Amino acid sequence: MGKCIYHPDRETGYICMKHNIYLCEECLKCRDPDIYCKFRPSCPIHFISKKGFKEPEIEAAQKKHTVVFEPGHQTIRVVEGTSLLTAAQNADVYINASCNGKGACGKCKLIVQSGRVSGEGTALLTDKEKEKGYVLACQTIIQDDITVRIPEETLEKKLKAAGMGKAATEKLMGLVDKIEPLVENIPLQLDLPSLSDTVSDLDRVRRQLKKAGYDISKMSTNIKVMRQLAESIRNDHFKVIASVLWKICSAEIVAVLPVHEARKSLGLAIDLGTTSIVVYIVDMADGAVLSATSAHNSQAACGDDVINRIICAEKDGVNKLKKMALSTINNLVKEAIDSIHADHQQIENIVISGNTIMTHLVLGIEARYIRREPYIPTVTEFPILKAEEIGIRAAAHAGVFVMPGPASYVGGDIVSGVLYTGFYQHQELTLFIDIGTNGEIVLGNNEFLITAACSAGPAFEGGGIRWGMRAEDGAIEKITLTPVTFEPDYSTVDNKPARGICGTGMIDLLSEMLLKKVIDQNGKFIIGTDHPRYTLFNGEPAFILEFAEKTGLDEHIIFTQSDIKSLTLSKAAIYAGFNILLEQVGMDFSSIQQMIITGGFGQFLDIEKAVTIGLLPDIPREKFHYMGNSSVAGAYMALLSNTSRQKAVAISNAMTYLDFSTNTKFMEEFTRAQFLPHTDKKLFPSVHIN
Amino acid sequence: MGKCIYHPDRETGYICMKHNIYLCEECLKCRDPDIYCKFRPSCPIHFISKKGFKEPEIEAAQKKHTVVFEPGHQTIRVVEGTSLLTAAQNADVYINASCNGKGACGKCKLIVQSGRVSGEGTALLTDKEKEKGYVLACQTIIQDDITVRIPEETLEKKLKAAGMGKAATEKLMGLVDKIEPLVENIPLQLDLPSLSDTVSDLDRVRRQLKKAGYDISKMSTNIKVMRQLAESIRNDHFKVIASVLWKICSAEIVAVLPVHEARKSLGLAIDLGTTSIVVYIVDMADGAVLSATSAHNSQAACGDDVINRIICAEKDGVNKLKKMALSTINNLVKEAIDSIHADHQQIENIVISGNTIMTHLVLGIEARYIRREPYIPTVTEFPILKAEEIGIRAAAHAGVFVMPGPASYVGGDIVSGVLYTGFYQHQELTLFIDIGTNGEIVLGNNEFLITAACSAGPAFEGGGIRWGMRAEDGAIEKITLTPVTFEPDYSTVDNKPARGICGTGMIDLLSEMLLKKVIDQNGKFIIGTDHPRYTLFNGEPAFILEFAEKTGLDEHIIFTQSDIKSLTLSKAAIYAGFNILLEQVGMDFSSIQQMIITGGFGQFLDIEKAVTIGLLPDIPREKFHYMGNSSVAGAYMALLSNTSRQKAVAISNAMTYLDFSTNTKFMEEFTRAQFLPHTDKKLFPSVHIN
């Protein structure tokens, strides 16, 4: 028996087995689209009553169809009228849908192989595609039993491993002086009870903890521990392992196990990115990273950027987004745990490092006020939680430290980055940038920290770019163009046939197009319309980067006027951000003693080319330091060390947040930076465009 | 989806809707009687799988029958071979079963009206009864669809109200100086957020709490609060009520509600007795008792005394006993809450006062080692819990203080009694006795407290006595006998026709039989076998207290030689306990400055007659003070006052526990006291038996 999700005071036997939620009778009968009906169009809802299996009458009246997704043969029953995208989401079939079903990005392409569908035409598909049965999943309505094929370009590709465990161990081990886990496992030999020593089992444990030097006055005990305690302590002759969860200013005995059941205690460092999620499994005894995995955040089906995620949460409920993130995390945990032949019950320590919106959503916390003036987050500093409160695949009692963040648009991932890169402890003035979906900047040293987010947008991650994609297999990541012919020399991720362009490829391409005079400093095309690599797409000029016959695709890979504009806006936002932050403290780029670049994106960044297009400032190149995924590295430190956890809180509290959304100077600077490299040539003395 | 009750690491879709437990596939298929099968004989088990309704095959092969209990027409499907007692327990039909199905007490009488049953004969039913279709539920096996009637004497009768709210208010209000609830509701007017004040919602609440003088450094926040916080604070223009649960050395924000949703905060004082449970609903603003209800602890179906309860928990799992106690508590809460037209969500404070075994069982804590040498309880001092962790009908976040107890056989109810009666604060040497099922004694003053339990047994509560019963309607509670004819003059509870004898009636009767020479000081019958009130029952002498024709029954109400023996053993155990406790500190009865008698039983006790049979010591009668149900009164104090809660812990820690079970002196004293009033006449100078 569970409690109704909308009326937590009501017990009910009605459960939707698909959504794993309970509904009371009232909600079950309710036709309010915010309550019951919102699950209806999309899900083959199964209600089960106390008396057995029951389909609500309102449901029975509706026609249902079977949808089969190939390859993989994933099958789902849906109500007639459901969109293909919704069906895919509910069948846990991942398909790319950057714009969250608005029909704008054209990425959710599927091929209908059999069965009848309806839907409007779209300009985002070529005639050739339409002939072959291509549709956009979000624009297509199911009218029949159908079979659809997910084409290569729509299928999720595994991200290049963010760094396997061994590499991560080499990079990170030794970063903390002393290992102080959230959940400490303390071996105890209890005194044997006798008629002259009849204290309770629990007091016997507490007495021994006190003898071992622990402050038991602040230590409470979980009721589950009390329930199993009598058996646990007698199971191995009063030799036990007591697990204590250390909270901010109290502690809780969360487990007591017979000593022979003790296993290696593991930790989980999670970088919860908007685009991708990285998970490290850490040996809590020595800090070795035993396994590392990463995958796309499956919330991406609700849109590429945080604003679309919030909108989706407002529409469909925050629980949907919570479950999506958890499903990615838990699949990664399973994969990582399986790879080392461990059990997820061994995970007793967890750190989550994510931006403020990601953190809200994964915890199921309302995020709608983050996108409304005055942009207030619900929570920025979190108590120590337990895995069971969140739903992470780990021991129920695992302690969870959520990285605190100073503001709505600068979150725990940035605090993690500052913690890991360590510049907050030194005198050198440092400019820190995390080029992910958001583009957060921190300026400061051991005396001050000022921070802002630039709303760089998803362009660098492939969003809003015709052939843009993430750094997956087949993504063009490095490019040079031969002068005059503009013949490209490029490499792709994993050397697979080109399928699109990722962020670093775009920077290379834009820089090359500028230097080789395909475009001018306004980003306008200047090559002849008769050049073999010039074409028109939807009426606007475009550059043919690769011809269809050289790719595995039916079409040329092109880079359009709009793509150039999107990329230019993104880089302008970041550069303007640097400028305003410096101005705020009365400095300029010459004061910068080091510039730290972090983020998954930065991994393959060509600094020189990034300066050429005006994304990074024209300062001595030796000042640039690429430090990889600093969010997961900071999470790793906080996982192992209480000092690091305390420092993270201190960093978050020390940060002054500057809001650009209401800053007119930022808008001016942003406009000035929409030139390649910049309106003010003096700012880029080393860039020569003639 | 839930977790398997036996393998908490496994998620499963199989649920037994009757027992509300999840079982994994392995357990489902398992034929180990300790796992799956134990639910089978007794319950029409319904397993529901992800794919809909499913009956396990092992189940399908078994024949099932329908059992209808009248009056009430409660119906249940059971597997052939189930006993009638088990069927009744699973149908939540309360029937009296003092011996927990051993066939020894003869109390679980039912009348089979239709259908075939099997079972052995029993000497505990008269031929007349057998003719009418009477059976003992525990000895009767279901072989067919049957209808049974529960006769008057087996039906549960509501206890005389333990004192309505108003009377309780008069007695208790003003006992505490200052009201300090576990969950404090703090009204706050938050600052409105703006672009120049963008702290998070949670920090806004915490900041205001700090301004209001609260120490927020030790205050964590429940994740449920965080999830609803954004809406809650905006719902009534940033005017909120923050509810803070104060724990031993930390605090937790457990709710934040818009101020217009605030309602009267209620408290629940629970006296969790072995025999009966008393519940007070208290207004946390002023301490008024708004409602008071009581009922039998439905665990009584598993036996009258704590040892039988532990045995039952070992056999059927502690969860069964937990659910039984909770079902009684929650029904009482519903009744009490309904009577004042309130909502159980208003209950935010709870205190449970019970003996150590009751406390273990209601919390689902293993109790088996309590009955095995060296008699170790699992827990004696509890952290502050929440209602949702226990399953009490109240706000999920309601704080629960469980009265601590010093030892396995002296528990929180006695600490409650000491707290309420207050003698621990004064110099007067006090002997305290709670005559319930256990018979706990405390001797002491403001310098020392020594305590013991006498294992008085259930005789005073009607257990093991042929016509013994609780103080329910129709119980004979006061008796005098006319000399020679032994014509009784008696009164019954609620003046209903006599149905049996309760504890006070038995003391009166034994005293009268002794004084009027029905029996001698050994308890042996001395009246002539030809006396109209002399009879034989199962071959032993018995006294006819009332003839069948004067009762509503088919039989005479009698008092047998065995009944006299049982009662004598009980009183001897208590008196011996007094003696040993005094001896332990080098004192005797003359040192006693006051004697406090508490417990529901004591309510109608005739002190003079209790001295006559040697239950109470022969000391000046003005030293005796009857103080009613001190367990619920202590719970009431702890509910309202943190000082009282701290004092309760201090009392429990200060108590020295003496174990009689291994005390040879106790055995000697016990033997000496098995005479009426006592082997040593000098101890009872005022009792004249000639």
Describe the structure.
2 copies of one chain form a homodimer. Chain A is α+β, with helices and mostly antiparallel strands and 690 residues long. Chain A folds into 5 domains: 59 residues, no CATH class; 86 residues, Ubiquitin-like (UB roll) (Roll); 79 residues, Roll (Ubiquitin-like (UB roll)); 160 residues, Nucleotidyltransferase, domain 5; 103 residues, no CATH class. The first copy, chain A, contains 18 helices and 35 strands. In chain A, the strands form 9 sheets. A 6-stranded mixed β-sheet of chain A has the order 20-19-18-21-23-22, sandwiched between helices. In chain A, helix 14 crosses helix 18. Chain A is globular. Chains A and B meet through helix 6 and helix 7 of A and helix 6 and helix 7 of B.
